[in-house]
Amino acid sequence: MGKPDVETVADRIARRLGRYLGPHTGRVAVKTFATRALGRGPETLTVHDVPAMNEALRPMLRTLLGKQRCEIVIQHILGEFGL
Amino acid sequence: MRYRSLAVAPLVFVACTAALVALVPAGLRGTVTQGEVDVSKLLACAGMAAAALAFDRGDYLRRGWGVWAACYACLLARDAMLLVHGQVSPLVYDVTRGTLVTAGNACVVVGAWTLARAWTVAGLEHPGSKGARRAVVALAIVVAVAFAGPTLVVDLRDIALGSRAFDTIASDLGDILSLPLIAPVALTALAVREGTLRWTWMLLTSSLVAWLFYDAIYTLPDYLSVAPLGYRLVSEQFHLLAGAFAGAAGLTQRMAVTEADDDGP
């Protein structure tokens, strides 16, 4: 039996980061910042955690992509969840 | 596709410059090579400045790219001093040249250090175990010292014997301090190997590796006890490659930061 096709919240955030960092590192980043900021694993993330995850990801995105691109990625993540 | 074209462009550039040097009369080769080196420095300066300007004031990488671009600007200005050689007093010439070389090498160390630390500043860990990462850094330090160290010893000896070429010491120290930074830059390239940022970090790694080969080719005659005749033309190809790769790295960074994101919500 294969994995279900439905993307988790963590997968969807990782996919957005993956454009720049690659899929694997995108998932690693989500895991790192979910653990660091929320104290939980990425598999526990819900839509309610997305704003907090964005805040946790912001310094990383700003360092690697700059302020403007960081805000675009954040907006895309929020848009992904209709927030 | 445009990223791939930019990644290949430095190799095409160096193939063309090598062909040009091969075609011109032997007596002109030194002058043509110097001109080509300056074109590559100009490309590096422009590409890195373009990357810096893609970021906002206060952005971490703006500083790194900007300072590295300033390095190439200083080295270009140092080469431009050749145009006034003999028209200004030897003291003014030497002091200005020495200042530009020292400033340029200080900038390359600061710029390379800033970019090499970007992944850590972003709060991420490089791939691989701690032991493996330390081994990579240690290897880079050993290789950098092995290839840039002997030149420093020779230049220090020359100064002890009365040479006034103090700028060579700044250049040697710049190499020794910046080349080990290949390790963290390469580890960052490895971390983003599947994303659009990979082009920037791979090209930056390639630039530093080309610098390493440039130093290595200069040093090999010391190890092999052979005359350095003919080495300059070969080593300068790596010099050209380092500049061209640096310029391409800057341009891909600018593209990654400023290009429209077509996978919006």
Summarize the structure.
The complex is a heterodimer of chains A (83) and B (265). Chain A has 83 residues and is an all-alpha fold. Chain A is built from three helices and no strands.
Question: Can you walk me through this structure?
Answer:
The complex is a heterodimer of chains A (83) and B (265). Helix content of chain A is 72%, strand content 0%. Chain A has three helices and no strands. Chain A has helices spanning 9-21, 23-38, 50-80. Chain B is mainly α. In chain B, helix 1 (2-23) runs antiparallel to helix 2 and helix 2 (29-54) runs parallel beside helix 10. At the A-B interface, helix 1, helix 2 and helix 3 of A face helix 3, helix 5 and helix 10 of B.
Give the amount of beta strand of chain B, in percent. Answer: under 5%
Gap between N and C termini of chain A: 34 Å
Helix/strand order of chain B: HHHHHHHHHH
Q: What is the beta-strand fraction of chain A? A: under 5%
Shape designation of chain B: globular
Count up the helices of chain A: 3
Assembly status: heterodimer
Shape of chain A: globular
What distinguishing features does this structure have?
heterodimer, A: 83 residues, mainly alpha, 3 helices, globular, B: 265 residues, 0% strand
